[in-house]
Fold these 4 entries.
Entry 1:
Amino acid sequence: MGMRITGVMSGLVALLGSGAWAQEESTNQVAESTAWSVFVEDNPTECWAVSTPEEMLATRDGRAVAVRRGDVLFWVLYRPSENIKGQISYTGGYPFAANSTVTVEIGGAEFRLFTEGEHAWPESPEDDAKLVAAMKRGATAKVIGRSSRGTTTTDTFSLIGFTAMVDDAAKRCSG
């Protein structure tokens, strides 16, 4: 599991630092379908399907609160050089509470993501595959996390267009 975090963290930090995740500023967008887009980078070759939430809600002590957050993104990454095929990642735009998990709710099913800093991932490639399959069948995904300040966030992502874009990203990085 440590290698999983380290390899992806270095790539994501480089991408986030380069501004590649900011869809409106990036020049590497290669496809789009409703709420989801596909981006491709070289050196190393990476492809990902990514979306931003349709709705964002923050609560503390049961009451809605206004909060400031960085980029909130849900994506599926492919990196052939490291044999990464369909790795789910979520960035909450704030530091998660220590030792917390993020819950993803899709059509009555729940999935748990472990957290580090502002990022969250499923525990294994098998868990990634289960979550991708649920996302392909679902209409929306609710992603619920807790910040280091005790705020609970609920981000709702549309899954319309997800299947087409994740399949496109996989094809672009298939070899």
Entry 2:
Amino acid sequence: MIWEDTGFLLSKSKYSENSLIAEIYTKNHGKTSGIIFGGTSKKIKNYLQTGNELFINYNTKSLNTLGYFKIEILKVYSPLFFDNFQKLNCINSSMNLIKLLTAESQNNVSIYNLIEKFYLIMSNDNWLQNYIYWELELYKNLGYDLDFLSLVKKKIIDNKIIYIAEGHSEKKIVPNFLVEKKNIETDIKTLLNGLKITGDFLEKTILKPNNINFPISRQYFLSSLK
């Protein structure tokens, strides 16, 4: 079976002295794994950075065997952020989330489009707030919708609007930007609280029921923001 497609590099690992096994999220074939022969050579390895967009020629004998990629670079993204540790960690964390949460060979163009949207967000000044919205959109596309409006109670305290989510054993204050999605939030503590809430949802609702460990790449991302 041979096909051509475009895709974003999600991960790579050493396969032999000169080759790599790569996972690529493609537009028309979903997440696909394959060998890149010569992937450690100077000619290729420089643009095999997580998150870069590639043109792919994929060849495999059958659906049950690991095929191999012939690749060309389409768009270089990750190196654009080598001088921004926070955004670089965000790219690694996001691509790893897609790797963990998507199934092999299941096409979902919405996920591919979200990756393209991700890089538009990275170019904005208000990127962190918009990334949090992006993450929630990713979960929704995977079947895990977190609707804050249905979960919180609105209260007025000292002439300020406060949103509170009440669980069986605890109460949480939910940042206004997660509920209203209209005001620009610049306070890093508030944004980190928003990421903690979405991270708790990720762990308790998505990862644990599927026996997936919480990704270290997301922990690195959060640490880089503090």
Entry 3:
Amino acid sequence: MIELVDVKKFFGSVHAVDGITFSIADGEVFGLLGKNGAGKTTTIKMLTLQLKPTAGDIFFEGRPIRGNEIFIKSLLGLVPQHLNFDQDLTVEENLELHARLHHLPKLERRERIDELLKFVELEKVRQSFVRELSGGMKRRLLIVRALIHRPKILFLDEPTVALDPQVRHKIWELIIDLKAQGITIVLTTHYIEEAENLCDRVAILNCGKIVALDTTENLCAGRPLEEKFIKLTADS
């Protein structure tokens, strides 16, 4: 489904991503694990066409990004790290606007919004202004917005950051449900437990490079993943 070949992204003298190569299979939950500044968000921004790589190639379903931007964007849903709703619109109005941007017909818009609000248990707040929602509700609403056009691939950039454990586990349940629906998921996180519980495979990034890439089962073999993570990402 997705392939990166020797991808680099430089900002002047800063090598945010420095030659990473990996692939992601259909229906896989693939984790990008690393400390702040490791290159996770930069990688996501290149994969979601928000940034152009300095060098290297990225392919979706065998097609390079260059020349296939419209097709690739139709495959993608993005849950960003930061909340970016119109706070003066209601939950329903935000979703209606996003559905219109994806050119969903009126009847399909209504059915899809109803379906997704039920999926994340936000039906009762559909007429509430976004600014009135709790942090956990806003995170769930970000997921709804990203799913409105039925993407094949969902990018989650630290979706549970700053949430309390109970709400975090609620988001985990949603991700597990999405995987069961066959959606390919790319997840960035710096929570070891999150990667262990959700991901089929994990790439550990440090200073823009991949320092480990394997199944969570193999990475956890022999010693705790947290211990391996600390060793692999220790500052040199």
Entry 4:
Amino acid sequence: MKLLKRIEYNAPVTLTFSLICFVVLIFYNIFGERFLYAFAMTYNDSLLSPMMYVRMVTHIFGHLGWDHFIGNMSFILLLGPMVEEKYGSEKLMVMILATGLIAGILNNVLFPSVALCGASGIVFMLIVLSSVTSVQSGKLPLTLVLVMIIYLGAEIYNAIMVTDSISQFTHIVGGICGSIFGLFSDKNKK
């Protein structure tokens, strides 16, 4: 019992995001793809449907199985607390929602026949954000340059050369959002 008293909800946005993704995955396992299509997957729908606008953000909570979920949550739970401590919970929440919205809008406009769900864009945003550790005005950190080359370069290559069901575009959008947030955020104010 003493151990439970010592456990701290140390990264509320990261942990709550992960918990929501877990609950959505449970509902997906119970109700099937209809649940994801209704609440946690963005796709080209009628502009008159209010849910289309909601799903442009909520698609980040949906995952197409345990492997997809575990892969994303491993990175989110590893990197999220560090980024949340550095930037603050409110800023991280805004960054997550903005990245999801930007990816959702761009996916619907540029790839109208592709449905999108998952937190991969958020993962790439966190990877890039975590690489920006000591940005000083007028300087570009080498760690950020290397992360951009390795992760985003691989995604650009995969988008061009590999045909699969993974949205490399979302990864690229997440990485770009992470670099913009990291380079232009005032990290000292939470």
